[in-house]
Design a protein that fits this description.
The structure holds 2 protein chains of 2 kinds. Chain A is of the alpha+beta class. Helix content of chain A is 27%, strand content 27%. Chain B has 11 helices and 10 strands. Classes of the chains: A alpha+beta, B alpha+beta.
Chain lengths: 802, 344
């Protein structure tokens, strides 16, 4: 909320300068985010009078003006048309730098010298837009700084009000806040006025049929008023605070909203059918046109102000077009009511209609303030508009408004805050707040809270008042007593994830972070290749964009687009990983979330290698990352098996990783259709790991086995197999072939004409070792034969002899 | 015997010429053999000296010996010169250029958000906090109601919420990590001392807001926890994160689930407190929100507010990472441009 400092000063004659007020309020919890001097840039702008005005000889659209500041006469070329000789205007002299950044220089415009500029309101940043130059009141004395003439020797405070402090959404509220900081007194302007009209009860009948939703309804009526613009000072203040001036009646209600925080509404009494008002919620849905011209659908339960025939306003939100004040209006009813905050909020939300009034009602308005606001409105208006005030006021529900009493133990504030507040100091703070205290010596005080502090209901609220008004600076810094922290499952997870990240970083992978939501046309088009039924997706009701409609079921698409984006930026070797959650529906718990780790790789096997081997990366480069990563995280064996269940991979180039019989991850080559769709030129390899499943059962500590004392024997076997034989299976069988087989590995593999169609040659090196003796030639030979037989019989292998 | 003297002189001259002419080590060694070998020229002359008359023997002998020494040292000098030259050549061939890049990859880069998050987690773990997680898809109860945001409360406007399709209609994407406070307190009795790092979501997008971002939440509950403890802990945290001399301030604020509530500011890292665009001329940057656990939150989890007190705090990681690294647009953090990531 924006508040001019001068307005505050009308309610509290504070010794705080604008900057001090900013600091003090901020440090008391009412954040003042900016404090701007309004005269900024107006140093060389003065009031002036047009002496003479004639058309520019060379240009139809320009005029030549002779302008005086009282002592000097200036020749000015002006593009506006809305002025005439004798008008008072704002003159920017040469050298002025206006608030909108324009610098005024002496210039020749179409051959005529111009010694300054006549300013518009927009150029002085007094309005968003303006039609011509600003014409000042007739009685303006030339030669005065424009800032003084316009009341711009003022500061505008921008106050950020937290949702609990609706009471501060007004000049009065902030003035009260200053009072509770400094101990200065808030003074309310006098609101006396003569009541010479008919009794209000004779003019209008008012009923509140839903007192639950409208605990108080106060009204004043006036007659004999003429609709006109309100005075400049009022229009200027409204504009500064962001409200558009309309006419004297509406402006006064808006002025009061800003000044005391009481939203008001003005009805044209003569447009109220049956001269009556009834506050009630309808029983059935109906249509109603609010004064912004929109037709609204009103549901049962939304509180309306009705006249004798139908709705005339949505209570506390917006008035209706049918009863608003118009040019011919002469009799007005001012509504100053109190509505239930939750009812107003529900209505405003459902209608999608938030107004200054509903904003305040939602956050709370002082129920005791309705009468003062109504009186102030009438009194203010009577100062500049001739009118006659009806006798008396209507105040339905006023008797129920009472201040609250909240118990407070001074000991409690010390306990919560960790420092001692003297009881006297607490007393003083309550006094500054205007909270009367009754201390009956039991150690519990009874603190009476005035109705405008509706946020204070409990002892803790009073504790906060004492703490914030004593200043948080006075809180000492101590440390909570240290206890050995527990080591939770999530601590373990954080550690595992850190280790995975470090491992991948060491392998040259950088970390990506993508949004958890995915979607859009790509998803619709590629659904079948993404390996996921959209019906199983966790969906957003209100996505921020079409690309964010559902929660990602895996990390693949994020990393794929990252790879594509980087390739587009001429980074061909992409190595990225991401740790994050995957989401899906689950029949047991409604939905599941699982921590995953995605790894993507494309480009060269060894980026930046200079030895000429710029081999492209392949499937085994990805396997060479994910498999060791799993072993790094948890040193128990994993099994890699071919899979055809993951449609985002190329057929035949996809594998699942199993650990203890459970799928803990998968990897493979991304299928062609996806590459094309993401505009990725070369092959891309991807792996995804289910981090918790993959590390679920860490093996027990390794047990020591005695080291061999006798030399090993190595035997190489070259064998031709049908292409489909999985070498991994061959190796595990060879390892099982005899107790003495310590290790078996592949040293060579190739295919080609020499070997024949559908065949591959595999060179296997076997390390034979006995713990208790050196193996004899005969023993070695016998194991070798056993292995050869295994390869031939079990796998259809054929031993190559040369 | 002048004939012999001349012979010696000639031999010396000849020897010197051969040494100079030798093109390789083996040439030189051949020549050396010819001159100094058992049947070599120098031996011949020395033998000849023995046959000379006594009175000449001395003079000629000296002459011959000098010639031999001179030739020998000339041979040696030439030989070592040749060997040195050869060594240099060979070494030039064998020496490797150690400045060429090593084989294999240079390390990749941690994402700045993850890096900051990880450092914050480790600071609090050192200060005795243990990690707790929670779901991203939350119920209205945990995300709002049990945190003292009643339905129709304007405080709900502080966080633009994403809703999730569900039968009961009560699922949201958590707007903060605070639901973990409730889940933790429901599960365990005090003392509680946890941090909850995680992903959170709000329907908001511009250069300082992202629809998804990260937070770290903290909660401590015990018999004797005070706001002074909170201020002490957070001051220590800011020192560890932003440097021991960075001024901090603690000022009142509002969150539905804490009371009294506070915000912590650090002196602006851009302007050093003199006021700039980043700190909106205030000289301070808001870094985190905190406060004493509201008694009504204790009510929801069955803790007695007369027996226990607690504090909670929460901070946005992106904001801290952006301040630390001077990143001005939050969207850069989610583009995963390797040229960007490589800077951290």
């Amino acid at each position: 909320m924006k508040i001019p400092y001068s307005w505050l000063k009308e309610f509290i004659d504070t010794r705080l300068s604008p900057a001090q007020a900013q600091e003090a309020l901020t440090m008391a919890g009412v954040e003042v985010s900016s404090c701007r001097f309004l005269g900024e840039g107006l140093d060389s702008v003065v009031t002036a009078r047009i002496l003479e005005m004639r058309p520019h000889p060379e240009a139809d659209r320009l005029s030549l003006c002779k302008v005086t500041d009282g002592s000097t006469t200036f020749g000015i070329v002006c593009g506006a048309k809305n002025m005439k000789a004798g008008d008072a205007v704002a003159l920017a002299k040469t050298g002025a730098r206006l608030p909108n950044g324009v610098e005024i220089k002496k210039a020749k415009i179409r051959g005529q010298a111009s010694e300054g500029m006549l300013c518009s309101e927009q150029e002085l940043k007094l309005a968003e837009a303006s039609a011509g130059i600003m014409i000042l009141p007739e009685d303006t004395v030339p030669g005065k700084p424009i800032a003084d003439a316009l009341g711009l020797s003022d500061w505008l405070l921008e106050v950020e009000i937290t949702p609990n402090r609706g009471d501060c959404l007004s000049v009065l509220g902030v003035a009260r806040e200053i009072a509770s900081i400094t101990g200065e007194k808030v003074v309310l302007p006098d609101v006396s006025f003569p009541e010479e009209g008919e009794p209000i009860g004779d003019l209008v009948r008012i009923d509140v049929s839903d007192p639950e939703l409208c605990p108080r309804y106060t009204a004043r009526a006036i007659s004999g008023v003429t609709i006109a613009p309100s005075p400049d000072w009022m229009r200027r203040r409204l504009t500064l605070c962001g409200i558009r001036p309309i006419n004297n009646i509406v402006d006064v209600t808006n002025y009061l909203l800003l000044e005391v925080g009481q939203p008001m509404h003005a009805f044209d009494l003569d447009r109220l059918r049956g001269l009556r008002i009834d506050v009630r919620a309808p029983k059935e849905t109906l249509a109603f046109t609010t004064l912004d011209g929109s037709e609204r659908k009103i549901d049962p339960g939304m509180l309306l102000i009705r006249d004798g025939e139908g709705p005339v306003a949505v209570a506390g939100v917006m008035g209706g077009a049918n009863s608003e004040v118009v040019d011919g209006t002469t009799r007005v009813v001012f509504e100053s009511a109190h509505f239930s905050p939750s009812s107003i909020r529900r209505t405003a939300k459902r209608l999608g209609l938030s107004s200054e009034a509903s904003y305040r009602f939602e956050r709370g308005v002082d129920p005791a303030g309705t009468v003062y606001a109504a009186d102030r409105a009438v009194s203010l208006l009577s100062r500049f508009a001739p009118l006659s005030v009806a006798k008396g006021m209507i105040d339905a529900g006023g008797e129920s408004v009472k201040p609250r009493t909240v118990p407070f133990r001074p000991e409690r504030v010390n306990r919560i805050m960790g420092r001692v507040y003297a009881p006297g100091a607490c007393m003083e703070i309550f006094a500054r707040l205007g909270f009367p205290v009754a201390d009956d010596g039991t150690g519990t005080w009874n603190v009476t809270v005035p109705t405008h502090r509706f946020d204070i209901e409990r002892e803790i609220d009073l504790v906060e008042e004492v703490a914030r008004l004593s200043g948080y600076d006075s809180i000492p810094t101590t440390y909570p007593e240290s206890k050995a922290p527990e080591f939770s499952g999530d601590d373990r997870f954080v550690d595992i994830q850190e280790r995975a990240f470090d491992f991948l970083r060491g392998r040259g992978f950088s970390q990506a972070v993508n949004f958890s939501f995915v979607g859009g046309r790509t998803w619709e088009r590629l659904g079948t290749f993404l390996g996921f039924d959209p019906a199983d997706a966790v969906r957003l009701v209100n996505p921020i964009s079409d690309d964010a409609t559902l929660m990602r079921p895996h990390l693949l698409t994020g990393l794929l687009s990252n790879a594509a984006d980087n390739v587009r930026r001429f980074i061909d070797d992409v190595r990225l990983y991401e740790g994050g959650k995957a989401f899906g529906k689950s029949y047991v718990e409604g939905h599941f979330e699982e921590a995953r780790l995605g790894v993507i790789l494309c480009g060269k096997r060894l980026p930046g290698d200079w030895s000429g081997a710029d081999t492209p990366a392949d499937f085994f480069d990805m396997k060479g990352v994910v498999e060791p990563l799993l072993l790094h995280l948890c040193p128990s064996p994993v099994h890699v098996v071919p899979t055809c269940l993951r449609p985002f991979f190329e057929e035949g180039k996809a594998a699942d990783i199993l650990r203890d019989g459970e799928i803990v991850g998968w990897f493979g080559a991304i299928r062609k259709e996806l590459l094309v769709s993401f505009e990725l030129p070369g092959p891309v390899f991807y792996g995804e790991i289910r981090l918790l499943k993959a590390t679920a059962s860490p093996p027990p500590p390794g047990r020591y086995a005695p080291l061999p004392k006798f030399p090993p024997v190595f035997r190489d076997v070259a064998c031709v197999f049908p292409t489909g034989v999985p070498v991994g299976d061959v190796l595990s069988m060879v390892r099982e072939a005899s107790h003495e087989v310590e290790e078996a590995g592949v040293f060579d593999i190739f295919t080609g004409e020499k070997i024949g169609e559908g065949k591959k040659s595999v060179g296997i090196r076997v390390k034979l070792q006995s713990l208790d003796r050196t193996l004899t030639d005969a023993e070695v030979h016998s194991i070798h034969s056993k292995i050869v037989k295994l390869l031939e019989n079990r796998f259809g292998g054929k031993i190559r002899t040369s | 015997m002048p004939g012999t003297s001349e012979q010696i002189a000639r031999l010396r001259e000849e020897g010197m010429a051969v040494i100079a002419a030798a093109r390789s080590e083996s040439d030189l060694l051949d020549a050396k053999g010819r001159f100094f070998g058992k049947k070599g020229a120098v031996s011949g002359i020395l033998k000849g000296v023995a046959a000379l008359p006594m009175e000449e023997r001395k003079a000629v002998g000296e002459l011959a010996n000098r010639a031999r020494t001179e030739l020998e040292s000339a041979f040696d000098a030439r030989l070592s010169g040749m060997r040195e030259k050869e060594r240099l050549l060979r070494e030039g061939r064998d020496r490797i250029d150690v400045t060429l890049p090593g084989r294999g990859s240079m390390p990749g880069h941690r994402h700045p958000v993850s890096q900051t998050m990880s450092e914050i987690i480790s600071v609090f773990r050192r200060l005795g906090f243990s990690v707790q997680g929670g779901p991203d898809v939350e119920t209205d109860y945990y995300n709002f109601e049990a945190l003292n945001f009643p339905p129709e409360h304007p405080a709900r406007d502080m966080q633009d919420t994403f809703y999730i399709e569900s039968a009961a209609g009560d699922l949201v994407l958590r707007t903060h990590t605070s639901p973990v406070q409730i889940r933790t307190m429901e599960r365990m009795k005090p003392p509680v001392r946890i941090i909850a790092p995680g992903t959170v979501y709000r329907s908001d997008s511009d250069i300082t807001h992202s629809p998804m971002f990260h937070q770290v939440e903290g909660l401590a509950v015990d018999r004797d926890i005070t706001m002074a403890d909170l201020k002490g802990l957070l001051t220590e945290f800011c020192r560890m994160t932003f440097g021991p001399t960075k001024p901090v301030r603690f000022r009142p604020s509002y969150f539905p689930f804490t009371e009294p509530s506070a915000e912590m500011d650090i002196q602006c890292v851009i302007c050093g407190g003199s006021g700039c665009r980043v700190c909106k001329e205030s000289g301070w940057l808001e870094i985190l929100g905190a406060g004493m656990v509201d008694p009504s939150v204790f009510g929801f989890v069955g803790y007695d507010p007369e027996e226990y007190a607690g504090f909670a705090f929460g901070m946005g990681i992106e904001r801290i990472a952006m301040l630390r690294h001077g990143i001005s647009d939050i969207r850069l953090l989610f583009e995963n441009d390797i040229r960007f990531l490589s800077q951290f």
